[in-house]
Amino acid sequence: MSGIYIHIPFCRKACHYCNFHFSTSQQSKASLVAAIAKEAIIRKAYLTNTVSTIYFGGGTPSLLTAEELLLIKQALYSHFAVEADAEVTLEANPDDITQEKLAEWKKAGINRLSIGIQSFFEEDLQWMNRAHNAAQAKHCIILAQKAGFTNLTIDLIYGTPGLSNERWIANIQTAIALEVPHLSCYALTVEPDTALDKLIQKGKKETTDQTIQAEHFELLTKHLDTAGFEQYEISNFARPGFRSKHNSSYWQGKPYLGLGPSAHSFNGTTRQWNISNNALYIQSLDKGLVPSEAEQLTAEQQLNEYIMTSLRTIEGCSMEWIAENWSLQKVEDVLTAAKKYIDDEKLSFTDNRLLLTQKGKFLADGIAADLFQLS
Q1: Domain named Radical SAM core: which ranges (predicted)?
Q2: Are 137 and 226 found together in one domain?
Q3: pLDDT reading at 23 higher than 80
Q4: Of 24, 66, 134, 229, whose CB count within 10 A is highest?
């Protein structure tokens, strides 16, 4: 199965921590949507498998009108073999969610919502420079559920300066009380050249504390486990039957097509990415060209990507898979590199699979990087 990701690069407001490609000017929105539809047609041969997931990300896809959303959807369904029961996700901001919009999304075939809550507290939202307030954070979830969206997820951010353990627990418990079936929870990362990075450098905001972030992560996993959530990936927690099929396909190394400026595509051996410039993207598609670059992944790069993504999941990193797709020697090399983490109880080796322990989960990226194979 394959997936399609559509990047909608528009936001009402720039969040201080965000390093994704977006614009706060929506003047070119209609032209860009038309260009995305053109790209879908041009690249219709990219995926040879049936499409089982479609994901509208951004940016803020909830800024699209019903007509713009349908234009893209029609291009996809006309030129790709999309499963009848495909998971179709739309990222939405709380301030965009109304009864009218929810009805439009339902009619357009959206069957899963990903809502950027980030926090249920006013002070946190203001610190992040979010466009919504605390009341909207709660109300939008109730509205979506009343409109029939049972499959929904929310984002929460932890480890921000000033976020106490008590307030972080309250965020988690609020999500549980609202009966949200899926949560994506991320430690705040200070990305280079973001507004947050510049404010920290000027001494106008505090930087993050990894010790506090580790505490918040431990509290998160403890409370969600008690509430019956499965931590099926480092940052993702779901009730039974509510895993994100689209994001799971990334971690499983399945092929996907990315449409829109800055979107990435992967066919198993080659990675491709579109230009991160709205105007140049539109101009190129007007000429029938997709403005992109690509790289052919070496065998070692493919193995390292497998290590990185699989280790983040509950299924872990399979030595049998490495032996089948690379070599027995690579299995020995990976296990040799993993030994110190197994001895330190950050990794376990069970059923021929390497799995992160609770102690190792917060250090996942560093551990994976240590297991990488160099040519």
Answers
A1: 1-230
A2: yes
A3: yes
A4: 229
pLDDT tens, position by position, 143-164? 999 999 999 999 999 999 989 9
Q: Are 4 and 55 in contact (CB under 8 A)?
A: yes
Can you tell me which residue has the tokens 């709380």?
Answer: 94
Output the six-digit token pair for 156: 């929460």
Instruction: Establish if 285 belongs to a structural domain.
Output: no
Q: What is the pLDDT of residue 190?
A: 82
Q: How far apart are CA 184 and CA 238, in angstroms?
A: 9
HSE value, Cβ hemisphere, 13 Å, CA-based, for 29: 22
| Residue 169: pLDDT over 90 | yes
CA distances from 13 to 215, 337, 368 (A): 30, 44, 35
* DSSP 8-state secondary structure symbol assigned to residue 59: S
Q: Per-residue DSSP letters for 199-247? A: HHHTTSS----HHHHHHHHHHHHHHHHHTT-EEEETTEEE-TT---HHH
Same domain, 233 and 303: no
Structural domain of 62 = 2-251
